[in-house]
């Protein structure tokens, strides 16, 4: 609350002293001259105990009360019977404002008796009356208490908490405190032990309770009820009794401090600010749970998995969601995530459902985390601390790597093509288990984990309704597209082809074609191109056969492939393959030159041409190696190879990076080794005797490279023919 407006009103006989009360509060002495009406007074926040700025307005009977008023003080004179008798009449006027009322009996210094016996029946008649205070502006009796109670009536009203007639807390207050108890019961044993009580105390009041203070609290409960303390811990009944006691003794602020710390407003409803904290999500970004959020959800699961079977039974699910005002999960959830043989949600399925909710509707996920008390237990400012907003997908494509852990795959296909079966197979359900699913319990989503190069990732499958005329942006927004057709239906593939050509032919989203129901007889599709020819034309993988009509759980390799495509959508293009193949061919050519150079070296030694014949293979190789063109080609080769390594292999992942880099580096190293070997052998020929031959190990190494490349064989034959021709000329 930003500020409080106090309205001091007199609706009855004049001269009851309301203006004198205001003047005495401000000046701390009784004024000699009292004006007819005091000006509006503002008390700064640092002066009041609750650190709230306070505005005091002096009203009379002929003035309308401001709608900004937070509390109204109705002043009467205790020595004037007419003033007391008319209090009820004017209370009815103020009740329409729906704000707390304070009855103020002024001029208590003029009488020796109290007016409380007369006022008490009136207080019991009206629920809006918070309290009654008798005071004296002349001798400053209860002046500070008057404003304290007025401020307290605004910040800590009794009405929403307690029913004076029945002398017990209201149902809304009991419901709120019950949720607070269950959130604070970290082990879900129905008892707040000393550690949990200290955590509760520290959370609400920023200070723990001393051991003796804890015992005193429990002793108070023991003296008043038999089942308030169990196993030296506070039960729910004992917890509610303590707050009832606080309210009855006028310590409403204690209960209100607890309620507001756990997100409740003056109407005992969780505030919008608590349930839906502000979180900014830029376009093309997704939302995921971070590590702390998963740890919290894991603790919640362990807290309610009482039989320790790593699955939540229907009773355990209900117990988990008792802190919610409604049941958030319907029967479709059991067909969205993994379950055990009994149909109960497993631990993995439980986390998957939270991941799904966070990805599709982050505001709802924030709301759910608020009900569970994430920000309270993990001492965070809000539930927004549990959410990770991923970077823009375009940046991932540019850098060819991603840090996301959730990937979405939209499933498109004609009716009856097998989309639902493909979703359920991802959850490990074969056709026999799928037939047991009720029609009203089916889900259009399925989510589970896959492993890509040892990394756990979530794959979210979404079945898109087959409406070709209109596909929304949500139907098109995904990381990978799965086009499903029935191999046994001749008209099934046409829908996939039309959808691809209409929406995805110019898209960067990778696509995969699924040949569903592959256990049935495959028929010719009524389309100009067969599925295989269609895939070849548009340069993506051939149709992947799939069936869920199996004895055991269907194979999940295809889902791992989909996740990999979603993680690394930029595959190798044809030009990339040509560049790499060109590098390999060039290396093979040099290997052949090296091999024939070694053979020619021995011949050259026997002929004693001393590097001047210009006709043998040795001399020709020497000239080639000295060409500037060859050196520039070598430099460009190094640059091209390393650019490919940095630009392409980086996006393939750490696993492929090591493998491809090692292979290409070996090829580049081989090029350098060839040149170095040729230069070393040439130098050795000029310095050593002419009868020296090439080492046998070097010859074997050259033979190894010759056998290692298929392309090198062709160039070896050509080189050998050139060598024979040169010998004949010689």
Automatic annotation (TrEMBL):
Entries under Gene3D superfamilies matching the protein: EF-hand, P-loop containing nucleotide triphosphate hydrolases
Keywords: Calcium, GTP-binding, Hydrolase, Membrane, Metal-binding, Mitochondrion, Mitochondrion outer membrane, Nucleotide-binding, Repeat, Transmembrane, Transmembrane helix
EF-hand domain location: 292-327
GO molecular function, one term: GTPase activity
Residues that span the membrane, as ranges: 578-599, 704-726
Family: Belongs to the mitochondrial Rho GTPase family.
Protein's name in the database: Ras homolog family member T1a
